[in-house]
């Protein structure tokens, strides 16, 4: 029995070590095991993150549809024209903005080691239509998506910002895929972060 007690005590000491963050990779503990980063000792500061990505079109149909405005003949609107930013599924940009905001709020459900309930203060998703450029990847146009997330807390919101742009980008793809199944989502990246021990970082 004494041996069992000593073994149990040793196990408890080792278990305490699992709560310490690895000095270089904080999503590992000092034993090299994966864990949720311990932020209990961090100061609560103002956090800010901005991320972006692009959805590239691979034919001219989607860009033309998104830039078509209704034409009127007398008192009637042409039935062959679509409202700006609207396709068969509705207003693409409005749906993508809402999806991006929802995605930011769901980040801990998607990325396993993100902290839940960090108390996001704001999420904004900006979407810009990029015109075709001959000889470049944007030869048929693209959509530029930028998300900004803020909070007051012990951990940053970089993952929330990047998850937001991906949620918005997937929604753009979903709403436009009837016209262009070859669309490419790329250049998902953090542009800027502020707050915390590491301070300001800009790309």
From TrEMBL:
Entry keyword Secreted: no
Pathway the protein contributes to: Cofactor biosynthesis; molybdopterin biosynthesis
Start and end residues of each stretch annotated as Disordered: 1-35
GO molecular function ontology, one term from the record: cyclic pyranopterin monophosphate synthase activity
Catalytic activity as recorded in UniProt: (8S)-3',8-cyclo-7,8-dihydroguanosine 5'-triphosphate = cyclic pyranopterin phosphate + diphosphate
EC numbers: 4.6.1.17
CDD domains cross-referenced by the UniProt entry: MoaC_PE (cd01420)
The keyword Lyase is annotated on this UniProt entry: yes
Alphabetized InterPro entries for the sequence: MoaC, MoaC_bact/euk, MoaC_sf, MoCo_biosynth_MoaA/MoaC, Mopterin_CF_biosynth-C_dom
GO biological process: Mo-molybdopterin cofactor biosynthetic process
Enzyme class label: lyase
Alphabetical list of Pfam families matching this protein: MoaC
Molybdopterin cofactor biosynthesis C (MoaC) domain mapped to chain residues: 36-196
Key words of the record: Lyase, Molybdenum cofactor biosynthesis
Protein name: cyclic pyranopterin monophosphate synthase
């Amino acid at each position: 029995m004494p041996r069992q007690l000593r073994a149990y005590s040793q196990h408890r000491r080792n278990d305490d070590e699992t709560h310490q963050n690895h000095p270089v990779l904080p999503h590992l503990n000092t034993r090299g095991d994966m864990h949720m980063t311990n932020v209990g000792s961090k100061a609560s500061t103002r956090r800010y993150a901005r991320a972006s990505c692009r959805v590239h079109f691979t034919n001219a149909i989607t860009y033309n549809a998104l830039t078509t405005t209704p034409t009127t003949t007398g008192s009637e609107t042409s039935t062959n024209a679509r409202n700006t930013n609207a396709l068969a599924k509705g207003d693409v940009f409005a749906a993508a903005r809402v999806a991006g905001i929802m995605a930011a709020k769901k980040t801990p459900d998607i990325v396993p080691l993100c902290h839940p309930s960090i108390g996001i203060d704001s999420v904004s998703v900006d979407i810009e239509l990029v015109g075709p450029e001959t000889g470049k990847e944007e030869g048929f146009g693209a959509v530029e998506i930028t998300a900004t997330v803020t909070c007051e807390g012990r951990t940053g919101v970089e993952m929330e910002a990047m998850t937001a742009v991906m949620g918005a980008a997937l929604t753009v793809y979903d709403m436009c895929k009837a016209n262009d199944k070859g669309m490419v989502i790329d250049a998902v990246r953090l542009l800027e972060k502020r707050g915390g021990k590491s301070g300001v970082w800009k790309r």
